[in-house]
Write a structure and sequence with these properties.
The structure is a homodimer.
Chain A lengths: L5 E8 L7 H17 L4 E3 L13 H7 L6 H13 L2 E9 L5 E9 L2 E7 L7 H4 L8 E5 L2 E5 L8 H9 L4 E5 L14 H13 L2 E5 L4 E2 L2 E2 L5 E3 L14 E8 H5 L2 E2 L3 E2 L6 H4 L4 E3 L18
Parallel strand pairs in A: 1-2, 2-3, 7-8, 8-9
Antiparallel strand pairs in A: 1-13, 3-4, 4-5, 6-7, 9-12, 10-11, 14-15
Helix pairs in contact in A: 1-3
């Protein structure tokens, strides 16, 4: 619909196989084609969807890493051009400086527009990857302004806020969320953060998680598209599959919340730049010797 | 259990009546007594539990305001002493400077330890109250370090983060959440923010909401106690009632998340102090003339 601010978003929940670069590229290509068939203007693929996730060690991660002019990104550039959509996807990247990074790319019409290197590394990723040292990007595309956060990045409200303050309409979250503990009810942890980030920033969140089991690790399958009210627009995908929703970019650009509020305009940055006021009292921890009376940090 | 870091927390979901100062004080006193009977070391009462919420105008709010050495707080000081617990409660405050504020107090053993003036005002509160201009407090008590955020304050992840960084074990949230729209499923918006804030900061959240109908406004009844995993420890209270849970302060002081992560230690403040990287491209908004091509703010 020309002139409309509505468009279709897709997130692909995939089950890559560790080390199967060719098979994983094929899996991603099929998902991209399916998204295009579904009329999506943008498709988000999971974190590390080229390589798999559960690396035996740093050497294996390095062996599966490829530069952003390597075959995976080259393939996605061609597919983005052929299908006329925006692709956000995670890959195991061999960076120019020789570091192996957990990265996500934003591609449109054959062009690599941005690379985000995951800035907050989870668990054994710390053994395999060098974290990024640049703030996450917001990329102007024909499908709106797309912010990017990779998995644990999105757990940090600071990241989702800074992307929103920089004008993101949609925050794309390539994810690989392992099952860590008995899932929270009625919403798993990774859906709670997606919904909360969407509602407090009045932004769309398009999260592409993985599924299946890899070297004994099970995955949550927390793929979702959330609207600026914090409302989930998609049902849980039980396994591999594509979730789609129609979104309206204009809604993400209106930060009004009720008649007199604005979720970004109501911020009080002059308060946030100071520490919370700490009130000591004589009723402190001495009453509870089980707790270390460490200084408040 | 001497030496233990476990204690019982209570949140009271109440239905104050607008303008009924004496009745509301009695309602609060009953809830405090019930919390003491339930063995609670700390009880949280709703926002504006002295006055009610749906003021006709600023004049009515002023007529119902009282100073922190007025009868409500004096009464709570006596009750805190008699019952040996910590009270966190919201009131319509007439501040020393003559301003009417939406405030919350923290009281222990007859002492007023802290007053927090709501810093983020919601909707018509902007017509009735002057917002606070001081960062929210973390108060050292015998029931742990208690951070305070009043209702819409807690919608700002910056507030919950700064309280956690200042050492809060429990963030007490006196709340009056009106029903704004069809509730989010399966968790209402005010529970999503509580669960998200708890899990990303690994802190307890003790939220006391109101219930009932006041001048045509219905209330969500989103009272809850959430643990540092983001797990709700309480069931929804259908009307007025007391929710209690046993918590372990030591859990809120351990920010470890899995074997190699720490939700506060993993922050990258050097990235958050900069703006997100904005990548302009020729595929920008021109493709969607329905959207204003405003500068990214």
């Amino acid at each position: 619909m020309p002139g409309s601010s509505e468009l279709r978003v897709a997130v692909a929940q995939l089950a890559p196989r560790i080390g199967d670069l060719d098979g994983n590229r094929q899996r991603a290509a099929s998902a991209i084609a399916a998204a295009a068939d579904a009329g999506a203007a943008v498709v988000v693929l999971p974190e590390l969807c080229t390589s798999g996730y559960v690396f035996a060690d740093a050497r294996e991660a390095r062996a599966l890493a490829e530069p952003v002019d390597g075959p995976s990104v080259e393939g996605w550039r061609a597919l983005a051009g052929d299908h006329g959509l925006v692709i956000v996807a995670g890959l195991c990247e061999l960076d120019d400086d020789g570091a192996v990074r957990n990265s996500a790319v934003v591609i449109e019409r054959g062009e690599l527009l941005a690379v985000h290197r995951k800035a907050h590394l989870w668990d054994r990723e710390k053994l395999c990857f060098v974290p990024g040292s640049v703030p996450p990007p917001v990329v102007q595309t024909s499908a709106g302004r797309i912010g990017v956060a990779v998995c644990y990045d999105a757990f940090f409200p600071e990241v989702m806020r800074m992307l929103s303050l920089a004008g993101a309409d949609i925050i794309a979250v390539p994810m690989n969320a392992p099952v860590l503990a008995p899932p929270l009810e009625p919403l798993v942890a990774d859906l709670i953060t997606a919904c909360a980030s969407a509602q407090v920033n009045r932004v769309y969140v398009a999260q592409a998680d993985r599924t299946g089991t890899e070297r004994g690790v099970e995955w949550v399958g927390a793929s979702v598209i959330v609207d600026p009210d914090g409302r989930m627009l998609t049902e849980k995908a039980p396994g591999e599959g594509l979730l789609t929703a129609t979104i309206d970019l204009a809604r993400a650009r209106d930060k009004a919340f009720g008649q007199r509020n604005d979720v970004l305009g109501d911020r009080r940055p002059e308060l946030y730049s100071r520490a919370a006021t700490v009130v000591a009292s004589e009723h402190g921890d001495t009453a509870r010797p089980g707790l270390a009376s460490s200084a408040i940090a």
